[in-house]
Design goal:
The complex is a heterodimer of chains A (290) and B (567).
Chain A: E1 4-8, E2 11-13, E3 36-38, H1 40-55, E4 60-66, H2 72-81, E5 85-89, H3 99-113, E6 118-122, H4 133-140, E7 145-156, E8 159-166, E9 169-176, E10 179-183, H5 195-201, E11 205-206, H6 207-212, E12 228-232, H7 273-285
Parallel strand pairs in A: 1-4, 1-6, 4-5, 5-12, 6-10, 7-10, 11-12
Antiparallel strand pairs in A: 2-3, 7-8, 8-9
Chain B: H1 9-15, H2 20-27, H3 44-76, E1 79-81, E2 84-86, H4 89-100, H5 119-132, H6 136-141, H7 144-152, H8 155-166, E3 171-174, E4 190-193, E5 200-210, E6 216-222, E7 233-239, E8 245-250, E9 261-274, H9 280-317, E10 319-320, E11 323-324, H10 329-368, H11 373-412, H12 414-417, H13 423-430, H14 440-452, H15 455-465, H16 473-494, H17 499-528, H18 533-555, H19 562-565
Parallel strand pairs in B: 3-6
Antiparallel strand pairs in B: 1-2, 4-5, 5-9, 6-7, 7-9, 8-9, 10-11
Helix pairs in contact in B: 2-10, 3-4, 3-5, 5-9, 5-10, 7-9, 9-10, 9-11, 9-13, 10-11, 10-17, 10-18, 11-13, 11-14, 14-17, 15-17, 16-17, 16-18, 17-18
Classes of the chains: A alpha/beta (290), B alpha+beta (567).
């Protein structure tokens, strides 16, 4: 029994190592100063997909990502770890998408892929922390969804059993396929890139990347079709323009404020009751606690 | 999120040495595999790009998994459960990650599911793993044994055993016995050919066996009854699946505690003969040991890197008398000397690895077709260099890594003596490197022939002739002076024509040659990249002073003076 699995993945700025230049003066993210990485929980999601592939013979793992041209890196990173292929959804028409427009575009692309048993995504991306895209994709495709997944326990007779990690414990649930799962960071980390897969797929490119190459570039894609990363523009996917990009995004950013740490001096407290009480009062007065 | 490959640009520098063009062309047989294997390189640039990218994987696993696990592995160590070695949890996690990344049969041919990488990137991976955890590299690095199987076993054995190692099984080399350490000719473990089934069976005890419970073991055993020397020994493969070996104990060691060092009892253990009878020690073990010594060189360099980084971090951060201790001459001199020795060690490591790469690849090509006269000469040239540089490398770099660990701990002061900082573990881990795979004293026994035959001097003369830009000629003049002094010292010792006298001064002479050779290698590195200039400057000052002391010691010594030292 082979499973056809789609993994939704996003390329994000590495907000875990934020330095002073992480934000621009206008309050937007300075993408040039932050490395573009595979969203961490999407790697947890990919690992769950690859484990299913290891367990159930003839399964395939397909990555789907939406972003600028360089997001093809996400597909390659997935191929290096054991995914079979991937689609990059890229077009100016998708620019400025909030979670609603993103999930709409992804859902349209998934409809085009058509043949799948399972969609797995990370719980949320570290640049927005909304955790909305996975559930919205499920709603748009009218599929059951399981969030906060930590481990896929088994797939049997068209049903999937999943362990969920919740705030106060774990829960084991079962849902029919196809369905959407979003995975927590408490799930096992993704396996490393494999040397042989890296050497096999390092020449995998999208058509745009191929066109940007120098003239003496050796193109192997005709003999090795697996080196073509499929790139879909808005014209390749059936969509309604009013739900795309900025026009499809009801989220409007009203204003952005930089967090500026005012106090730079340290304050020394002793363990005396008076000092501790003083601190509690101070924190309550400035609404840090209470 | 650390990457032990990309955070150290010296590695990429050594990977990109000009001789790699020749090594890659030989290793890839002009890229013949490119249409047979989807992961084979198309050309030189593609191959180099693959080495770099794969080393990035090694660096990532070492930075994110192996190094953070090192402390826990050191504390937990392996244990015996139901006659099987169970690694510390961190060790198993390290191994699983490297196996999943496909980093086990790095140098093996693709037909045995290996990566077909040259020795240089493999040794570089060992350098990186050693920096992360020097005990763990022993388990991972025993894939060296596969190289020996690939060289000497028959096609059927290669086809059965090598893919297993490529896919993650571990190996062991079972040589040492309670009464056969440095003197392996005394090995007694008995191999008996059963006339009925035509199979070999092993009986006896092996001691101090690293990863003794590995899946595939190479065992040195006495196959010729009634013999007592090295010519009665043969090499065997023992497969753990036979379950005919008892693990009597795991040694409680000072360092590299994550690496299980086992005492093994073979009881009628079925085994397969490798190659020809009687060549076990004199041919196969020698090859195995040379590979292992290169591995210890890598382990020493990785340890030196770790020791140096710990020292720098501590000296920058620790404040005394109102400033960071790195500002004090007594401390920054130590750090500069450490860096110079580290850079000298690493350049010797990769120089030696390249020699081994060229000659071993020719050797494998010779199995496929006969070599041309020029190729044979080329192979011999590099083989001779590899033979003389390997003991020099093992001896010098293992001593240096101990010096670096000592100095790094010293810089840490009292804190370094506590288990709170990694240097305490690094210091203990370093200590074995001058002992196993042949002590420094035994490396000198091999290397002194490089002195007396003039092999080192010949290579030094070649270095002297190489193009150096004018601004670096001052360094060369120093090295030429050191060479004259070395020649004189060699002459003073050799002309006495007394073997004991030569043995007495051997280490001094080998080290003098070593200082000159490493000085030249650093100079050539500086020719390619100016960032090695200060290490060259510091190392030449150090080496010149060391050689002067040795030359004076020899000049003021006569054969009669041996009497003061004799027991």
């Amino acid at each position: 029994m082979g499973l056809k699995i789609i993994v939704l993945a996003k390329q994000v700025p590495d907000t875990r190592n934020v330095g002073k230049d992480a934000m621009k003066a206008d309050g937007t993210v300075n993408r040039a100063a932050l490395a573009a990485i595979f969203n961490p929980e999407d790697l947890n999601a990919l690992e769950q997909a690859l484990r299913l592939k290891d367990k159930y013979k003839d399964s395939t793992v397909t990555l789907l990502t939406m972003g600028p041209g360089r997001a093809a890196d996400i597909i390659r990173e997935g191929l290096f770890r054991g995914a079979d292929n991937g689609f990059l959804l890229t077009d100016r028409a998708f620019a400025g998408s909030d979670t609603l427009a993103t999930s709409y575009a992804l859902a349209c692309a998934i409809r085009k892929i058509a043949d799948y048993d399972l969609i797995i995504a990370g719980r949320q991306a570290i640049d927005g922390d909304t955790a909305q895209v996975g559930p919205q994709v499920a709603e748009k495709l009218h599929l059951p969804q399981v969030t906060y997944a930590e481990e896929v326990l088994k797939v049997e007779k068209g049903k999937i059993t999943i362990k969920r990690r919740l705030e106060r414990g774990v829960e084991t649930v079962e849902t029919p396929l196809p369905s959407v799962i979003t995975v927590n960071s408490s799930a096992p980390p993704c396996r490393p890139r494999a040397a042989k897969l890296l050497m096999k797929y390092k020449h995998a490119l999208t058509i745009s990347e191929r066109h940007a190459k120098a003239e003496d570039y050796i193109d192997l894609s005709a003999d090795r079709p697996y080196l073509n990363i499929q790139e879909w523009s808005v014209n390749d996917v059936e969509t309604d323009a009013k739900w795309l990009g900025l026009s499809g995004s009801p989220t409007k950013v009203k204003s952005i404020e930089n967090v500026v740490f005012q106090a730079k001096e340290a304050k020394v407290l002793t363990t005396s009751d008076a000092d501790v009480e003083g601190l509690v009062k101070e924190l309550m007065a400035n609404h840090t606690i209470g | 999120m650390a990457n032990f490959f990309t955070d150290n640009p010296d590695l990429l520098f050594h990977l990109q040495h000009p001789l790699m063009k020749k090594i890659v062309a030989l290793k890839e047989r002009d890229f013949a595999d490119k249409d047979k294997f989807d992961y084979a390189p198309l050309d030189f640039e593609d191959a180099m790009d693959s080495y770099e990218k794969v080393l990035e994987i090694v660096g990532e696993i070492c930075g994110d998994i192996v190094a953070p696990n090192a402390e826990g592995v050191d504390a937990a160590g392996p244990q015996i459960v139901n006659n099987e070695v169970v690694y510390a949890p961190g060790t198993q996690e390290n191994l699983d990650a490297l196996v999943k990344a496909g980093l086990m049969g790095i140098t093996l041919p693709r037909k045995y599911e290996g990566l077909n990488f040259p020795i240089v990137p493999y040794i570089m991976a060992a350098d990186i793993v050693s920096r992360a955890d020097a005990g763990f590299v022993n388990i991972w690095g025993l894939q060296d044994c596969a190289e020996t199987i690939n060289e000497f076993a028959d096609e059927d054995q290669k086809a059965r055993f090598l893919p297993r190692i490529s896919n993650g099984e571990t190996a062991a080399m079972d040589l040492t016995e309670p009464d056969a350490g440095s003197d392996l000719q005394a090995v007694q473990l008995k191999a008996t050919l059963n006339e009925k089934d035509g199979k070999w069976y092993l009986n006896g005890v092996k001691r101090f066996i690293t990863n003794g419970d590995g899946h595939v073991s190479l065992v040195l055993a006495r196959s010729e009854e009634g013999t007592s020397d090295g010519r009665g020994l043969s090499m065997f493969i023992y497969d753990r699946n036979h379950k005919a070996v008892t693990i009597r104990r795991i040694e409680n060691k000072m360092g590299i505690k994550g690496s299980p060092t086992c005492e093994l009892v073979f009881k009628n253990a079925p085994a397969e003969l490798v190659g020809d009878r009687k060549l076990g020690l004199i041919k196969y073990v020698m090859a195995l040991m040379n590979g292992a010594r290169l591995g210890i060189g890598a382990q020493s360099v990785g340890l030196s890197e770790a020791a140096y980084r710990e020292a720098v971090a501590y000296a920058d951060e620790r404040k005394q008398f109102g400033k960071a201790i790195v500002q004090f001459p007594a401390v920054y001199e130590m750090l500069a000397n450490m860096k110079a020795k580290l850079d000298a060690s690493r350049t010797l490591l990769y120089e030696t690895s390249r020699y081994v790469d060229v000659y071993k690849t020719y050797m494998h090509i010779a199995e496929e077709r006969s070599l041309t006269k020029e190729e044979r000469a080329d192979m011999k040239y590099y083989q001779r260099l590899a033979d003389f540089f390997t003991p020099l490398l093992k001896g010098m770099t293992s001593e240096y890594c101990n010096q670096l660990a000592y100095d790094s701990l010293q810089i840490h002061g009292g804190s370094g003596f506590m288990k709170d900082y990694p240097i305490e573990r690094i210091y203990r881990d370093a200590r074995i490197t001058t002992i196993y795979e042949g002590t420094t004293q035994l490396q000198v026994v091999a290397a002194i022939r490089g002195v007396t035959t003039g092999a080192y001097l010949a290579r030094i003369r070649e270095f002297e002739e190489m193009f150096i830009k004018p601004e670096l000629h001052g360094f060369r003049r120093i090295l030429i002076g050191m060479t004259e002094e070395y020649e004189k010292a060699v002459k003073q010792v050799v002309e006495i024509k007394d073997n004991e006298y030569l043995d007495f001064h051997a280490r001094r002479l080998v080290e003098m040659a070593g200082h000159i050779i490493m000085g030249y290698l650093l100079l050539l590195d500086t020719e390619r990249d100016d960032r090695f200039r200060s290490s060259t400057e510091v190392y030449l000052r150090y080496g010149r002073a060391e050689n002067k002391a040795r030359a004076a010691y020899i000049a003021e010594f006569s054969i009669d003076d041996l009497g003061f030292f004799k027991p």
